[in-house]
Amino acid sequence: MKTTSLQPYRLRRSNRTILWIVACLLTPVLSACIPSYKLNGSALNYDIYKTIDITEFPIRAALVYPPLQQTFENKLLDAVTRQTRLQEIDGNSDLEMTGEITGYSLSPQSVGEDAYATETRLTITVRVKYTDNKNPANNVDQSFSAYRQFSSSLMLTDVQDDLCNEICDELVDLIFNATLGNW
User: Fold this and answer.
1) From CA 42, how far away is CA 46, in angstroms rounded?
2) Tell me, what's the pLDDT at 106?
3) What is the pLDDT of residue 110?
4) What is the reported pLDDT for 181?
5) Which of 8, 58, 76, 134 is the most buried (most CB within 10 A)?
6) DSSP category for residue 111
7) Nearest C-alpha neighbor of 152 from the set 99, 114, 98, 102
8) Distance in angstroms (rounded) separating the CA atoms of residues 179 and 78
9) Position 139 pLDDT exceeds 70
10) Please, are residues 129 and 98 in contact by the beta-carbon 8 Å criterion?
């Protein structure tokens, strides 16, 4: 009588083992069938577009912070390299991106009870001319702006590098989405 009660248990245990093995074998197969979408990549047809020329973005703003140009250009080039398969070349290319940094400005924001600003806003504006040499309907000539606010009790020189990095990251995302991202 004892053997009959153990036998169904053994069958159930062996069935679980078989099911576990089947599940382990099917999991990679089934997960390969699930489509995935990336929302940070480009919408380019790489059969058509292979190269891009990104030129310098000189500072044409009234207020000049010299490291800004190199910071912005490096971040833009890094984003294109990371998020596309385009090869960056000088000269004749499928896509071109040119422009200039047209604005670098400070403006008071919040006013305290003593009539002095408690926060200051740093705004950077970049004008971008994106040329699609294969399909001119995709051309973009647009200005992009981004800003960050900081306490007026801080010196700009103390926060300027961090603010410029954050603003440049946002500007690069905006520019990428409006041009190569084609959202």
Assistant:
1) 10
2) 95
3) 82
4) 85
5) 76
6) B
7) 114
8) 15
9) yes
10) yes
Q: Give me the mean pLDDT over the 66-93 stretch.
A: 96
Alpha-helical segments (H) within 46-137: 67-83
- Beta-strand runs (E) in 16-134: 51-54, 87-88, 95-108, 119-132
Q: Any idea how long the chain is?
A: 183
**Cβ neighbours, 10 Å, residue 106:** 15
C-beta separation of 174 from 146 below 8 A: yes
CB atoms within 10 A of CB 60: 14
Q: Give pLDDT tens digits for 6-21.
A: 555 555 666 666 666 6
Strand ordering across the sheet containing 87-88: 87-88, 51-54, 95-108, 119-132, 140-151
Distance CA 111, CA 120 (A): 10
pLDDT at position 34, please? 43
Residue type, 47: D
Record the pTM: 0.75
Residue predicted with more confidence, 134 or 33: 134
Query: Exposed, middle or buried, 27 (CB in 10 Å: 0-12/13-18/19+)?
Result: exposed
CB crowding 146-158: b at 16 or more within 10 Å, else e: bbbebebeeeeee
End-to-end CA, the chain: 71
